[in-house]
Amino acid sequence: MSKLYFSFFLVLIVSQAIAQKYKVAGIIKDEEGKGIGGVLVRESGTSSSATTNQYGIYEMRVHYGNATLIVTADGYYKVTRDINGIGTQNFILSSVSKARQKGIVGSRNLNATEADLSSPVDVIDVKKIASLNGQFDLPQLLQYVSGSFNSNRQLGADGTDLIDAASIHGMGPDQMLVLVNGKRRHQSSLINLSGTRGRGNNGFDFSTIPVSSIDRVEILRDGAVAQYGSDAVSGVINIVLKDHTDGFSANANAGIRMAKYNRDSSSWDGLNYNGNINYGTKIAKSGFFNVTADYNFQDHTNRADTQTDSILRRKFGDPKIYNGSLSYNTVIPVYKNTGIYSFGTASYRQGETYSWTRGARDSTNFIKLYPNGFDPLVSRVVDDRSITLGARTAWNGFNINLSHTYGFNKFSYDVKNTLNKSFGMDTTRSSYEAGGFQTSQNVTNLDVTTFYKDILDGVHLAFGAEYRMDSYKINVGNPLSWRTYNPLKFGGAQGFKGYGETEAIDQKRNNAAGYVDIEAKFDESLSVNAAGRFDYYSDLGSAVSGKAGLRYKITDALSIRGAYGLGFRAPSLAQQHYSYDILIPSKANLEYPQSNVITRSGSEISKALAAPDLKMETTHNGSAGIVFAPDNNFSVSVDGYYVRVQDRVILTGPIDSNDKQVGALLKRLNVAQVRFFTNALTTSTAGVDLSLKYTADLGTGKLNTILSANYNTMSIDTIKTNERLANKQANYLDKRERYFILASAPPMKINLTLDYIAGPLTFMVRGTYFDEIQLINRNFGGIDKSGKAYTEKDYIDIYKSMIQADASLSLKVNEKISFTIGGSNLLNAYPTMSKPGRTESGGAWDSVQAGNNGSFFFTRIFYKF
């Protein structure tokens, strides 16, 4: 027996000696060439490790000749490297305070990657994708590469056709947080109203950030309120700006649409061209300055119904848009571990959309002025700008980051080719300034991180504070755009009534918050994280949020992950204070016209209806998934998610003066119809995300495959009314509006992209599947010509599933010049036809995620100076 024990002990010693037969040594320095002491060097997947001496020298033994070394040090960014059988491995580490934007959304650990997180994150290489695709703006580019991201391009809306309603997992556009370089981005001042996705929400205007200025986009597909604050209910999108330093480069892009349906009988329309120039240069050893200028023009498309007897809209399609923007990103090293940074964007965009056609004999027209009727043209101007200034330093083991961000968005209306019927026939003018709204945001952040390598297998601690000031203002237009001069006639500009004195408002609020975020690694297999946050709003009170998650490595290739969080969303100032009043001509025996009004919280009308002030939404979210990544060439993940939102804010449907419960109250206030914002819904969203990436050698080239798929369901669990409006659930949210909410994302969406690189050629082909959705049209609640009530087959529009196919071919002539040609929606697929009288926007179909304009063919030229 003793011989057996001895033999076993001998085998164990020999096997250990054989396993660790590879010796690795080297020196680790900072950017100034000085050795760094106390750096931890470890072999991935084993317990082998070493620490550098005061001169930065280390020596260790590893198990494998192709081992992967992971190098970490307090105040420096992590480095991972395969040794490939080479025994000498030297490293130069970049200081956290001076280097470029690092880390990843979902973690405050500056060395983290998506492989370290307990929640799923997609990292999208915008530089590469934009060079091969026919989408010139960010929301549409992401729409066709991410299964969980949805960007719904509206046609014929008063403002939303200029700003896509974008969301994660089909939730509200305001239930998603957007960051730029890790800093909170301000929302758009536009609030989505009738007939659009995200009705009653104001989200983010992605088109204010030029695609040509973006390095990558990170999409966190899980709630993160405890880490980032309000709005991060469905997830967080972090836009990382370019930081390269290799001089000038320029792009010229142009494309045009094939017009399958066009009332003007044109074969092509929607000319789109874009030009941009980017410049990057170094500042000292570790700093940089990068700047981008971008101009984009998009012409009208016309997809009005081709039936000659249909004149609801003679013009219906994409607006004409002029968009100029600037972006910059810089880091300036100051001293050793200290640097300052700044980045910002500025955008000016003008868009023109045709409104509903006014017939020659319409009651809103003067036939002598417009003998053939008229098509009002609504022009919108979006003025948007943002700037961040901050400083980073490392002190006594702590990384300290102090910053301030200012954001501003202004949305203005002009109405052209119009009139004010109540003013009388005016031949001297046909356009009016119609006012608008604006919002601003000032955010100051203090973030501190540190790493304790001797606790467990390493603990990252982050804590900090945030102070935010928000403002919202409605600007008054020219009196001719909104005033009613004769109570028997329609007042205000036709096409879009301007904002008047009763709607004007200027409101502000403050928000202070503090957070703690901990990530602990117990061993090579198990890591856990927990975050907590306290927020106080000057007008809403306080809220506490929390989140916990874990990731467990079953093998080197297989991991499981999961997270659960409690959060909130504060209603925006726009939701609290927006109002809009359309005056309806009175009958001859009434002295004043009546109002069809969206009323704000706390107004006389709101009080008459006992409508409570808005409060915070509360949220519960959970996710769980599995990741399989056997090597660097293949990875696949499957993640399930669930989000429940209580007291979700909506804009109610109309409540009119004929109502038996409150009609008398409204008549006394001279109100014909009223709508208001209220906390009314409880919704549940659940689904599954699939992500796959595969790279393989094929012939003389390399084939890259990316699959991103999403299955999503949403339910409206409860509709809550107040006591005075008891049993008015159908008025709060009628069946039509419920279908709009439930169709915020298709039940299934699949993106599959293949690109093949062979020498100077790159060929890309992509397919996107949009599942069937159902919407309720304007027949709902009505009667047909025989007097019978419409049935479901009359008022439910089924938009059948669609597949869009894209392809492009790129030629790299040399290191400076490349050409790309391609097409989007090559099958020229369109939504299922409906009828203009039925759809929300008066077109031949409602706006759906799959797009509305048919095939698009483009060319692109890149030149590097």
From TrEMBL:
Membrane topology is: Multi-pass membrane protein
Q: Which UniProt keywords apply?
A: Cell outer membrane, Membrane, Signal, TonB box, Transmembrane, Transmembrane beta strand, Transport
Q: Which GO terms describe its cellular component?
A: cell outer membrane
- TonB-dependent receptor plug domain boundaries: 115-236
Spans traversing the lipid bilayer: none
Q: Per the record's keyword annotation, is Membrane included, yes or no?
A: yes
Where is the protein situated, by its record's location annotation?
Cell outer membrane
Pfam families linked to this entry = Plug (PF07715), TonB_dep_Rec_b-barrel (PF00593)
Query: What is this protein's record name?
Result: Iron complex outermembrane recepter protein
State the organism named in the record.
Dyadobacter koreensis
